[in-house]
Amino acid sequence: MSQAEPLTSNVRPATDSLITIRIIKSFPYRNVKNIIIKDINLKSTTPLQLLEQVKSEINTSGALRPFRNVEYDALKIYTQAHGSKSMNLVINFENDEEWTLVKMGKETRDGGLWDLGVCNETEISVFNWQAYLEFKQNPEEKW
To answer: Could you tell me the residue range of the domain that residue 89 belongs to?
Structure first.
């Protein structure tokens, strides 16, 4: 019998996880910047707390200065660890009902991130909800 190594996404506990935040400035121009949040407690952190943490990081980090002119009011899961990714490189158009955590500054469902399906190594997009709806109606990319 062979001892299989556990997946790296399952090694860390939910109280000490790592997630990737995809900050989307512009959908048509594909302006996206990733930040890593380490040591996050998914069981006690709510989606609104995560959104506030990301906004604080955007407003204090010099590397994110170009991303400060957007009103970020939405969080949506882009992909789960070891799951399939969307064909769209900017945002996942599928699963709006299940994977949207915050819409227009309000939580879509109650609970911590863990209760809403966020696990270790999940990628979450932060963006402006109105810009997302406009891009979803006409997903034309510009260069």
So the answer is: 8-137
